[in-house]
Structure formats: structure tokens, C-alpha cells
């Protein structure tokens, strides 16, 4: 089972929920930190990193003296990463998405394929949790290739929890593709409801079943609960605004270590997600 943990914005408690869920289950599983622009799951999981692998993206390299100024490469580049200036092609590497179209269509071989590093993948372990995380190179804007590299690796576990980037943008879509369930963490505020609506709409478009965890549940208003009731979204857990939980997070400690009674709550959450996914699979098999 693959469960993606999402939120409409940063700071909602997404990583806190994802990490404490992973540590409470008590089974060997994979945890992927796909928030590659601001990875922080390691601050709570404290995995022992065993391997760091650079991730490269193919980019064109211009070969002087071979260009006939036909402009074909510029025409096929959908991202405007190339410009023809006289008899030379200027390459804007940061805008290149690595599709290879320019090198394929160049009739003279004036463009060859090079590579540039866009980030790294780290692998490690924290107890029964196999950890995989991505970290985007400073100054890099192209996030999806790093997330796709992280997702397509074989981790050898039956279950995976994905800590997604916040929001509902392109990186999030790449992080949640092919998951069995989307667990959306939100807060009971007008902004929390707005962001929840956006994330749920994205999951609906992708055909992914969703459930909600309300963080700081004893604050705010009823807007989030009203939306969940209107949409038939299950509220699977509620976490109060608690000083001990805040202290644990500030110390870089999963709050289930300080408040072990919460482990049972997270195990129950995992079982409930498993039941929803199982019933959905049964319905699909009957069609």
C-alpha cells in the first residue's frame, strides 16, 4: 500500500503526521521525503544515511562549426531553452527539461547530449523505516525530475509513506501518481478549508481516494468539518493544539516518543486507511 501525506500549504503538520505514522506502524516500510525543495523529514526520523547519489538531467551541448543555422532545434523546444544567434545556438540549461528533442532533430549533429546535476537522492534507515529522500540543488528550479527519480526506485517494502511537497502544483502531482490513498493534513481555519479544497480537487482529478487529518483540531472554526461532511470525506484523525506535541517537534523528536499513547491512534489510522483501500480494490475487482 502506498499512502501519500499531503497538505495545502507548508507548516500544517504534514511531515509530523507522516513521520509519526511511519514510526507507529511497527512494520518495515519505506518513507520517501518528496518535498525535495525543503526536505525536513530527516530532522524527526534521524535516519542513518548509507548512500548519496547525484541525479543528472540531460542537456544539449553546442558543437561549434557544425551548425547550419536551420533553427530546427529552437522550433522543437517547448520550453524556450534554446536561442539561435547567427550561426550559434545559445543554451539556457536551467530552462531545459531534458526531453532530448533538440539533439534528435538536429540535422548536422551540432547539438550533443551532456548532463547537469539537479540534486541528490539519499538513502538510509531509521529502525524499521527505510528512508529515501531527495534534495534539490541550490538555485535549481526543475523539481519533477528529481521526484520521479526518487519514486521509480525499488525499495523492497510492502508499504510506502510519501511525504509530499505542500500545495497542489506540478511537483505534488508527480509525487502522488500511482498512490493508493491521499491523507490530507489541514487546520480548522478558513485558509485551511480553502487549501484543503484545492488538494482534494487535485486528488479527485487523479482518481485518488482521500481522507483528512485535522491538526490543532481544538482551535478555529467548523469550516473544514463542514466541507468534509458535504463531500463525504472521512475525518480519520484529529490532533489537538498541545504543548507537549509542540515541544517534541521543537526538539526534533517524534511526539509519539514522548506521548506513546498516540502510537495506538496512528496504528488505528493506518488500519482505517488499509480498510478504505481494500474496499476500493474489491469494488474495482468486481467491475
From TrEMBL:
Question: Gene3D superfamilies annotated for this entry?
Answer: 3.30.70.20, P-loop containing nucleotide triphosphate hydrolases
Where does the source fall among the domains of life? Answer: Bacteria
Q: Which UniProt keywords apply?
A: Iron, Iron-sulfur, Metal-binding
Record has Iron-sulfur as a keyword: yes
Q: Where is the 4Fe-4S ferredoxin-type domain?
A: 58-87, 88-116
Q: Does the keyword Iron apply?
A: yes
One GO term in the molecular function aspect is: metal ion binding
One Pfam family linked to the record: Fer4
Q: InterPro entries given for it? A: 4Fe4S_Fe-S-bd (IPR017896), 4Fe4S_Fe_S_CS (IPR017900), CobQ/CobB/MinD/ParA_Nub-bd_dom (IPR002586), P-loop_NTPase (IPR027417)
Q: What is this protein called?
A: MinD superfamily P-loop ATPase
- Organism, as annotated: Thermodesulfitimonas autotrophica
